[in-house]
Amino acid sequence: MPNGIPTDADTAYCKVANDWLADHWGPYLDRVAPGIHLPFKDIAASVAELERAAGMGLRPALLPDGIFERPYYMEEWEPLWEAADSLRIPITMHVGGLRQPLVGPGLMAYPGRQDIGWYVQSCGMGETLGWMTYSGVFERYPNLHVICTEGYAGWLAFAMQFYDHHFSQSRLHELGIDDLMGPAKIDVHPSYYLKRQTHATFMWDPLAIRNRDLTGLDCLMWGNDYPHHEGSFPFSADWIEKQFDGVPASEVDQICRGNAAEVFGIKV
To answer: Cis peptide leading into 60, omega within 30 of 0?
Structure first.
């Protein structure tokens, strides 16, 4: 019962869900990648379930974008990162981590709340990746890949630019103030890890496509988000054609198919 939260039911549910996924999708695991449910309130149980589910051929693992009472830079998460790295299991983090207060204006109804909230949550995924970059998680576990799901990708180029600039140029480093806040546990620019081990999915994001010379292609993944109402179905081909207009066919193929096939182990 970590932090006073009972986890037996969570663990039991995850086992049932993962067993069903393995039974139902088992014959097709070369074509699909059903996500592993983890009882993330209990990290030791999550490691055990990750190992068990990976043994059945499931991947990737599923985690929230952020658990803000127990951020991913904390050392207690280390066993899970180590297990995912050794098993070569990528981790998907769906947009939606709560980045607004539980009381006050954050919960009030106001014009555009849904769109504004989604924007804040999407850009906030750069915070999650920053946690894992600056704390050295990606440095220690080079086989660990994190996929930010349904949070767009236009913010990724700015995150790389911002983190790199302040990592190498900020006067905080010269004054030693950053040491008081917790020094970065990496020796190279943050964008190195973001390009190597992180990915962002999007449905409609011409800006992310335009900025691909800054981010590289490996970290970009298009998806249709079927069957959600905000997804592109049944107009996926039209969305792709419009936002990828003028992009070389090989790059379109990599972003729309190849990257996902590589990261999720799908044979297409």
So the answer is: yes
Question: Which spans in 96-228 are helix H?
Answer: 113-134, 137-140, 154-168, 171-175, 177-181, 190-197, 206-210, 212-215
Q: Please give the distance of CA 39 from its chain centroid, rounded to a whole number.
A: 18
Closest CA to 264 of 195, 211, 199: 199
Of the candidates 267, 261, 255, 163, the one whose C-alpha atom is nearest the C-alpha of residue 218 is 255
Q: Per residue in 116-168, pLDDT tens?
A: 888 989 999 999 999 999 999 999 999 999 999 999 999 999 999 999 999 98
The model carries a pTM of 0.91
CA torsion, points 39, 45, 51, 53, in degrees to nearest 10?
Answer: -40
**Amino acid, res. 182:** G
Q: Which of 33-42, 108-117, 173-182, 236-245 has the lowest mean pLDDT?
A: 173-182
